[in-house]
Amino acid sequence: MSSMRVRLTRRWPEVVEDRLRGLCDLAINADDRPLTRDQLIAALQENDVLGATVTDRLDTAVLSAPNRRCRLIASFGVGYNHIDTEAARAAGIAVTNTPGVLTDATADIAITLMLMAARRAGEGERLLRAGQWPGWSPNSLLGTQVTGKTLGIIGMGRIGQATARRAAFGFGMKIFYFSRTRLDLLEESVLGATHVKDLKAMLGHCDFVSMHCPASPATRHLLNAETLAALPPHAFVINTARGDVIDEAALAEALASGRIAGAGLDVYEREPIVHEALLPMENVVLLPHLGSGSQETREAMGHCAVDNIEAFIKGTVLPNRVV
Length: 323
Ligand code: 8YV
Fold this sequence. Notes:
This protein has helices at 14-21, 37-46, 60-63, 85-90, 103-118, 121-129, 158-171, 185-191, 199-203, 225-228, 248-256, 295-314, and strands at 5-8, 25-27, 49-52, 72-75, 94-96, 150-154, 174-178, 193-195, 208-211, 236-239, 262-265, 284-286. It is α/β, with parallel strands linked by helices.
């Protein structure tokens, strides 16, 4: 066992914490509450490795605090927009993430949101639980069919592709996608997917649009009042990426005014705060950022983060280095 000090900012799956305990001098966050800024700074000063998550805002001020001991931030998750990567680089701190292992779980949640929003599943369940279901009738709670519709995917990375596969092969959906990375022609023809260069033109054809791009200055508020206005009024917006890629206030406004039909959201601009106008809306499905939340996936994410920590302890190449 190494004398390397590793501090986890949140509780990780038990098997993963046990594995880490055998590798290093481990400090866990027993009560699992997000650390304050001062606690984060202290953690960077007192430990060689910080095991971080999306709930840690590791910005320039935190990362440039004096007397840092930390040389690796092993982030538990694929998205790392909670870490200022330039500040980490300047501070000489390597950053790793956990790509690949949460692709299927997150795509599953995108499809869950699509189906729930289109078929009014949340609304129906609330009605039934409230004891207000009068029984079946031919015209009650009629939703929108998903099968055969058109899906626009924004960001065709691993999760975008996994969602496209489910939509195309499971629901016979026609796929358009707006993305920096273009699939090769064979993949495009297998999926029946069409790459588009003009976001607004694509949105005009979408029955559903699903966000799968990473959060960055370039993708911030990609869906905003102007781009949302390009969607047809029967369209649904799905977001399992990051809250920042949609202007939440503009989305709430588009939903309130009936300019779009509904939305399914797993992520928010100011988590855990959700724009208050969305909360009472029946045509919006709101999930608490559980895209990767299966036991299997969270353990795989933890093991992937530990693989990086182990490599750091042994002084070998970090498998998932992003900084
Ligand atoms: C993670 C996620 O659970 O990996 C990601 O980018 O959004 C989530 O599924 C979360 O980020 C943990 O840090």
